[in-house]
Specification:
It is built from one helix and 29 strands. With about 400 residues, it is mainly beta. Strand 17 and strand 18 (about 250-255) form a beta hairpin.
Length: about 400
């Protein structure tokens, strides 16, 4: 036993000689907080995650789709089907959300939460009256900023429809405006907002300098709600909203004036069967390239199915089908359209079916596609070249993707 103790003592002494005491590490500050740049890179996107698995814990995730790794940059809460908007004229981000005193029950409170763009710290909130905020799958038309970014427009549904006007500068509610039979609030450039109505028309609501109601007009019906409804999620190009329809048309509505101006609808351009097919990344993969799938009709399909780039091109998510009831099934191809000439300039084949697409800003933008497994595919918008897939449940159910542009 004495020999064993002696051996252990010698071993301990040798260990101390071979492994000297490590230098004491400095104490790290807690919490360790990083900040984002004041001006986000063009490759940043906001992923509005409704979190179907627990909607009281929804969020808005900021992701950099241009980086090889480290995509996740930060997040903000967005409870109960929260909606999101970002200001360009001041460093603020806004979330319209809903809370219940006991989580899923109890007294309801609707608010606009204001976040600092760099730190993502909540800097204030504006309580919305009446518990009326529409809680639906995220659509940009449900929460928008006015053209000058002084006001926010919050769509309400009780089921009576109205819009709450909020003064973001003075952080107070201006009032509610009824929009009977209509939905959403798309900002008009000269103040006020436009709403889509159940009779196939568009209503224009005018506001005075203080954000108060100053009048309302209604266009003549222009779309066939029963046979060819419009998707309510448009792409914006130079103040014109381009709405795809279920039957494969593009309906432009000009929002540059004091009233919405309805333009002539035109069909999504069909591929030219005789034109040579543009080569894509698939042509470089043996056994995959060269396959043609041009036959058959295609229709717009998906949730966030239309977007645009800074060059003024329109991107529409398409599905191979002749049935307009497939409108929410998603698509596996993106048509790139020049709206000025109404011509098809490119077709981008996706790796799988997608429910939502977005194009980032800049001269060399990315096309981001939300896959059915909620991963994100990132492609070059210029030619459809696959860049990377972002998985790992960075988000759960992000049915709105908003580029910082």
């Amino acid at each position: 036993m004495a020999a064993i103790r002696s051996f252990m003592s010698v071993g301990a002494a040798l260990a101390l000689a071979v492994f000297p005491a490590a230098a004491e590490l400095p104490v790290e500050p807690t919490p360790s907080i990083k900040t984002l740049p004041a001006d986000y890179p063009g490759s940043y996107v906001f992923l509005v995650d409704g979190n179907f698995f627990g909607i009281e814990s929804g969020k808005v995730v900021i992701a950099d789709v241009g980086e090889e790794t480290d995509h996740y940059k930060g997040a903000m809460g967005a409870a109960q089907f929260g909606n999101f908007a970002a200001a360009k004229t001041r460093p603020e981000l806004y979330v319209a959300e809903t809370f219940y005193a006991r989580g899923q029950r109890g007294e309801r409170t609707d608010v606009i939460t204001i976040y600092d763009k760099a730190s993502l710290k909540a800097t204030g909130e504006i309580i919305l009256p009446g518990g009326k905020r529409a809680q639906t799958l995220t659509e940009r038309g449900s929460f928008q900023l006015s053209a000058d970014e002084r006001f926010a427009f919050v769509f309400n549904f009780t089921p009576a429809s109205s819009v709450t006007v909020v003064d973001l500068v003075n952080r107070r509610v201006v009032g509610d405006i009824d929009i009977p039979g209509c939905v959403h609030a798309f900002a008009l450039k000269q103040g006020g907002f436009a709403s889509l109505c159940g009779n196939g028309a568009v209503a224009s609501t005018k506001l005075d300098a203080d954000g108060k109601f100053a009048g309302q007009t209604m266009s003549a019906p222009f779309t066939d709600i029963d046979n060819d409804p419009m998707f309510t999620r448009p792409a914006m190009i130079d103040g014109v909203a381009y709405f795809p329809t279920y039957a494969g048309k593009i309906q432009p509505i000009d929002l540059n004036g004091a009233e919405a101006a309805v333009g002539e609808a035109w069909p999504v351009p069909a591929p030219d069967a005789g034109a040579p097919r543009k080569k894509t990344w698939r042509d470089r993969i043996p056994g995959l390239g060269g396959k043609s799938d041009d036959a058959g009709k295609r229709l717009p399909s998906g949730w966030q199915l239309a977007t645009s780039d800074d060059a003024g091109r329109l991107y529409v998510l398409m599905r191979k089908t002749e049935n307009i009831d497939d409108h929410d099934s998603g698509g596996d191809e993106v048509f790139v359209i020049e709206p000025k000439t109404r011509s098809l300039v490119n077709r981008i084949k996706l790796r799988g079916e997608s429910q939502a697409i977005e194009v980032t800003g800049g001269a060399d933008p990315y096309l981001v596609a939300l896959n059915m497994d909620m991963s994100l595919d990132v492609l070059k918008a210029s030619n459809g070249e696959f860049v990377r897939r972002i998985g790992g449940q960075i988000v759960m159910t992000p049915f709105a993707i908003i580029a910082d542009k």
